[in-house]
């Protein structure tokens, strides 16, 4: 009897089969946000060193922050519709 209860608890509804867990999706979103900001910062540092300037790093990093926020908001809206 206990084995049958465990089997019933492990079954997912048909609409959720094959979809990643929401926790996993949000972890991916956080990783994507961090990598986008880091890549923007690296690009800014490289441009600053190439053109002997000090304005590219903060500008591109800030742009990367806004871009990653936009991506996070779009993914959260998409996730809330699912």
TrEMBL record:
Transmembrane parts of this sequence: 23-47, 59-77
Biased composition (Low complexity): 1-10
Positions in coiled-coil regions: none
Domain of life per record: Bacteria
Keywords from the UniProt entry: Membrane, Transmembrane, Transmembrane helix
InterPro entries: ATPase_put (IPR032820)
Residue ranges, annotated region (Disordered): 1-21
Pfam family, one: ATPase_gene1
Protein name as annotated: AtpZ/AtpI family protein
Species of the source: Winogradskyella aquimaris
